[in-house]
Specification:
The chain has four helices and no strands. With about 90 residues, it is mainly alpha-helical. The protein has two domains: about 35 residues; about 35 residues, no CATH class.
């Protein structure tokens, strides 16, 4: 059976280890935040590429923001499913 590593018993070693762990957790929190931001915007290039392939009539800035907000809030798949139910001419 492997021997257990010796644990520091003095308070200064414990405090130093605790500070190192806190710094590591802070770095992990920053990495997680960056990953979440990247994941939230991961669909932008795909949507912009699709928009480049179709003609879009003039629209107000408010309408464009509403469409973008709906995609952001409800997810692209939900918005696409709802749009598929609209009648086409």
């Amino acid at each position: 059976m492997p021997r257990a590593t010796a644990k520091p018993t003095d308070l200064s070693s414990i405090d130093a280890r605790r500070d190192a762990l806190r710094a590591e957790l802070a770095a992990l929190d920053e990495q997680a935040k960056a990953a979440e931001l990247a994941a939230r915007d991961a669909g932008r290039p795909i949507l912009l590429a699709a928009l480049d392939r179709v003609k879009i009539a003039t629209m107000d800035k408010t309408d464009a923001r509403s469409i973008a907000a709906a995609i952001s809030l409800h997810d692209g798949q939900v918005v696409a499913q709802h749009l598929a139910t609209l009648p086409t001419n």
